[in-house]
């Protein structure tokens, strides 16, 4: 499924792209200017709303086209198909408003076919992309025919009729330039398509029960499962001391658990999935670890959430370096004025009732994958896993809840070290040191057997931490 299509792109270095953007924006200005005619030239309320419809719909389509071409044309060119659906909607509305039903039916079928053809070509399921000449040409001819009809039946063309005509010409020219700017991507990699998000690829080969389960349990806290475990840390403490002796002075349990989890995700990528909008996605751009940190271990010290971005295959040393670089960046200022703190401070200035609406709007946008990328980058509720160290507070591991907002599927908490007197195989009493940790997981992303395999593998890595230094890490890709 992942290889049954091709991907297209446009380069921002291509002048044709920017000319097309300028023409589309100029076209939008023309369409919106025609709103003046809707206000002044309408004889009744119906004519007024028809004028608004024929001005706003293509105007919004032109603005959207320009924005997507400039911002997402390199990686998500498929989004440019939406303006063609808007043009099809305009054509269908015009046909049923002013033509006989049989002509309207014919135009409806043609408009839908042309929009579907554009959608399929830009999506990469129909090749070559030069087939786009058909819908672009047909929509341009449609613009001309509408203008010709107006010219024939109108006693005199108004200024606003000419404004609309030139707006349509500019839009047609912009669409035509797109055809010459498109290039096929031939790097052999997976590229996003409809249904994918900025932060994940939609999994399309799931079993029916996995697909339906997200609708039966739509909230994350309806589907969380707790996995408590304890780890005998004699070998792990020795490993930590060896790392510190090699120059990693701040190496500790957190870094060891992070490195073990990276290796676990590399082998079992299913736990790097998440759910948004009742759809299951997988992260293919690495892992995002969220963690709350303090400037100082005092009650008055402010805290913030850091996001450590790691890649499958990162070694222990790379995990250590990336974690402490992110941590040190967050602690540079006494105020901890990270990007997250700036965003939350902005939200804190909004009145409560309005803020409630803003949060609802963010949830709505997140549901459909429309949340801006910069919010996803700083949000502590969007990531692969949330780590929390109770050991630094001197308390046992907690059972932390998952957040319904965002898409964090796993919460890992680990507590303080403690000693237990046990009887060994020879009947002698020995003192062993343990570390408790708890997983709170979203059971919808993988099944229980998968989770059990993951947790056992994670546990074995920590019992034999020298395996974290093995150079050959098994890196698997998630299912299509």
Helix content: 40-55%
Low-pLDDT segments, ≥5 res: none
How far apart are the termini? 6 Å
How many beta-strand segments?
Answer: 11
Strand portion: 15-25%
How are the strands of the biggest sheet laid out side by side? 4-11-10-9-7-8
| Major sheet details | 6 strands, mixed
Question: Quick summary of this structure?
Answer:
β10 and β11 form a beta hairpin. This protein has 480 residues and is of the alpha+beta class. It has 15 helices and eleven strands.
Structure description:
With 480 residues, the protein is α+β, with helices and mostly antiparallel strands. The protein folds into 2 domains: 179 residues; 269 residues, Chloramphenicol acetyltransferase-like domain (Chloramphenicol Acetyltransferase, 2-Layer Sandwich). It is 49% helix and 15% strand. It is built from 15 helices and 11 strands. The chain has a 6-stranded mixed β-sheet, with helices on one face. The radius of gyration is 29 Å and the shape is elongated. The model has no long low-confidence stretch (mean pLDDT 86).
Keyphrases for this structure?
15 helices; single chain; 480 residues; Chloramphenicol Acetyltransferase
Task: Spell out the blueprint of helices and strands.
Layout: E1 7-9, H1 15-33, H2 35-40, H3 45-71, H4 82-98, H5 101-123, H6 133-153, H7 159-181, E2 183-185, E3 201-202, H8 208-216, E4 224-232, H9 234-245, H10 253-267, E5 273-276, E6 279-282, E7 287-294, E8 303-310, H11 316-330, H12 339-348, H13 352-367, H14 373-378, E9 385-389, E10 410-423, E11 429-442, H15 448-463
Parallel strand pairs: 7-9, 9-10
Antiparallel strand pairs: 1-2, 3-6, 4-11, 5-6, 7-8, 10-11
